[in-house]
TrEMBL record:
Residues 1-25 are annotated as: Disordered. This is Unannotated protein. InterPro entries: Ig-like_fold (IPR013783), PKD_dom (IPR000601), PKD_dom_sf (IPR035986). Residues 132-174 form the PKD domain. SUPFAM superfamilies: PKD domain (SSF49299). It comes from freshwater metagenome. Gene3D superfamilies: Immunoglobulins. Signal peptide: none annotated.
Amino acid sequence: MPKSISKPISKPISKPAAPKVAKPVSKVPKLLALPKAAPKPISKPISKPISKPAAKPAAKTIIKKVATGKKPTTASLSDRLIKMLPVGDINYQPGVDPLVNIPIYFWSQTPARFTALVPILDVVVYVNLTPTFTWSYGDGGFEVSRFAGAPYPIGPITHTYKKAGSYLVNLKITWTGTWSVNGVTTPINGNAITQSISTNLDVVSAQARFIQ
């Protein structure tokens, strides 16, 4: 038997394996994490307490008294003078059982002039006064005089009652004059400086007697 010719077994031509191309591995370099800067603390402005200025004590007002700069008022001066003036009085003659239709003499012992140095409002006031006398006899009669009167027989102030009875006699003394301070003289209103005195007067009737 013929020998079989063994055909060469054709081995499949293996294509050379494609060379492996190493793909470049693009490694992304890892970013190094930079150390985070610690956040700076925001410094808040420290509000300092506003210190109020200490209140200064109020300055005391010093009032100086200047004697020459003050001027006394008439009202205040009158109040002082009323207490200093001599006490007025009423005198009459005859002093016992004056009769109707017979003149009665009236007078006052008030001086004809009054002078004084009066300290008031830190100044010294020189006062010079004279009186005016107004007599009211209680029966409607009256008399004004610059004189104080006098007893019998020289007294200029007299009054005659026509009827017996009890009468209220009044004497009003009005002082007028001037006051002076530092050489400046000013008149005083006399109506503000007055005195008033009263007394009861009993007038009797005369008894007629027949003499044989």
